[in-house]
C-alpha cells in the first residue's frame, strides 16, 4: 500500500463488508468474507451443485473461479482506495469509491477446482490514486493452488 501507516479500523472493515454484501451476485455465489486488512483480503466459497462447470467430475466452473478472484481483488482495491483517500471529505471520498470497477482481469487456471470449500486471497501490488493492481490466488480445501489472477481496478 502507498500509505504504510494506514490502519483498517473496525468501522472501515464494516464499510467494506457492507459494500460487499450489497452486491446480489456475491450472495448468489455464496461468497463469504474472511480477513479484511490493508495487507490482504481473504474470501471463502463453499461448493454447491449450482457452481459445477464439469458435471461428470464435479469441478468448479471457471466463471465462478474468475468471479471469486475478481470480487476478492476488488475488495483489496477498495481498501487501498480507502487508504489513498482517507484525508478527503466524506462526500468526495464516497463519490470516488463509487467508481470502483475492474479495468482488466487475467486468470490462469492451473488445476481443476475440486473440493468442498475454496479460499481466495488478494494482495496489493500497487495502489495509486486512480488505479490499483492486485494479485489473487485460489486454493481448494486441501491447499491445492487452483488458479492465480491479476486484476487492475479503477479506484478513484
Automatic annotation (TrEMBL):
UniProt keywords, alphabetically: Hydrolase
Protein EC: 3.1.2.20
Domain Thioesterase: 57-147
A Pfam family it matches: 4HBT
Secreted among keywords: no
Reaction catalysis annotation: a long-chain fatty acyl-CoA + H2O = a long-chain fatty acid + CoA + H(+); a medium-chain fatty acyl-CoA + H2O = a medium-chain fatty acid + CoA + H(+); a fatty acyl-CoA + H2O = a fatty acid + CoA + H(+)
Keyword Nucleus assigned: no
Family to which the UniProt record says this protein belongs: Belongs to the YigI thioesterase family.
Protein's recorded name: Medium/long-chain acyl-CoA thioesterase YigI
Amino acid at each position: 500500500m502507498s500509505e504504510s501507516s494506514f490502519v483498517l479500523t473496525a468501522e472501515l472493515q464494516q464499510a467494506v463488508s457492507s459494500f460487499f454484501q450489497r452486491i446480489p451476485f456475491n450472495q448468489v455465489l455464496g461468497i463469504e468474507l474472511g480477513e479484511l486488512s490493508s495487507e490482504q483480503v481473504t474470501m471463502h466459497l463453499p461448493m454447491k451443485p449450482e457452481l459445477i462447470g464439469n458435471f461428470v467430475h464435479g469441478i468448479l466452473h471457471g466463471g465462478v473461479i474468475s468471479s471469486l478472484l475478481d470480487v476478492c481483488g476488488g475488495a483489496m482495491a477498495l481498501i487501498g482506495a480507502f487508504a489513498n483517500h482517507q484525508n478527503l471529505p466524506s462526500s468526495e471520498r464516497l463519490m470516488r469509491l463509487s467508481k470502483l470497477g475492474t479495468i482488466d482481469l487475467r486468470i490462469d487456471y492451473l488445476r481443476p477446482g475440486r473440493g468442498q470449500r475454496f479460499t481466495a486471497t488478494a494482495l496489493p501490488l500497487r495502489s495509486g490514486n486512480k488505479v490499483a493492481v492486485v494479485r489473487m490466488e485460489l486454493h481448494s480445501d486441501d491447499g491445492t493452488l487452483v488458479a492465480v489472477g491479476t486484476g487492475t481496478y479503477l479506484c478513484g
